[in-house]
Amino acid sequence: MNLRDAAARRYPDYLERLAQLVAVDSGSGDLAGLDKAATMLAGWCTEAGLTVHRIPVRDPSNRFLGDAVVASARGTGSRRILLAGHLDTVFPAGTAATRPFRIAGDRAYGAGVCDDKGGVLAGLAAAEVLLAEGNSAFGELLLVVTPDEEIGSPGSRSLLGRLARGADAALCLECARENGDLVRARKGVADIEVTLHGRAAHAGIEPERGAHAALAAARLTVALQELNGRWPAVTVNVGVLQAGERPNVVPDQARLVVDLRAEQPGAFAEALATISELAAAPAVPGVTASVAVVAPTPPWAGSAGTDRLVGLARMVGAQLDIPVRAAATGGCADANLLAAAGAPVLDGLGPIGGDDHSRSEWLDLSSVVPRIALLAGLIDAISPGPD
Fold this sequence. Notes:
By secondary structure, the protein is of the alpha/beta class. The protein has two domains: 3-187 and 299-382, Zn peptidases (Aminopeptidase); 188-297, 2-Layer Sandwich (Alpha-Beta Plaits), CATH 3.30.70. The chain has ten helices and 19 strands. Strand 4 and strand 5 (107-109) form a beta hairpin. Helix 5 (157-165) crosses helix 9 (334-340).
């Protein structure tokens, strides 16, 4: 099977689908847009001969976040291979109209074009290549596409964990790094929201009757920032600091949102515990605190299984004349959750892209055909067994 030629035959459909999908606003929480995008994707999967299920996704408070699309194909082998991506973006409704899909040279632009709509469609195209060529040595090929990755996957975590626990390999469809690298490890991330409750008072007449929440927030900010350097490869950043409403009032409330990132699970857990302890004990008398850790995502430090997948990707890349490298990155993704559930994981298997989460987000169209071929070849190589 000539994978490059087979992938090239999928390219016109890929490009048409990409234009249609990017034209749909599907920011996290945009239920109408996410429903439209999921309906499009489910239809294309059905046309490809995949069995499709739409699974409602709800967060721990039972708030509906949209449907996950799970599409599957049965093969002749025994290995279960999971492809994972997401339909939600970070952009608000109206972005598709004000910044529509466009092509300039070898690049496509638009909201979510590489994060992760281009990757999702590459996963579907790779499945189509294998099915069209009658190459189904896998036991089951699953494509799962979620609606809430950009907010930490609070609703789809259980689904991803369940699917990962039965998978022989999980191949994640986030796009490759700008230099073409695949992703073999990701930092863990947690957002810690701290609300400080003080007591208001007139700042000129009786400030001593107040409990200064802003002062507590300032002291806590300094203490948290000083944690940087305590653990290797751990970063702590107070990214949001809000307090007070009027200059003549002792503020009775303040709010911080802290970003924690770490490479190793042990350091991640220790840093998270330290931050929570500091936040829960404000350094101003009369001020109390409430602390919430939002959708913590554990580090994915790689594994022997990841190393085997990288080796297979390099072997397939050599056959296709595609150089394959793999690197660690500081951003987290659903790969972290899949790895935590025990699956061997490799990420960055979409086409090459960059400037995620910005107005200049782009996808390298010249990389689409070779990366679809690489993904299809990797699935085929895994199917008989990684060894």
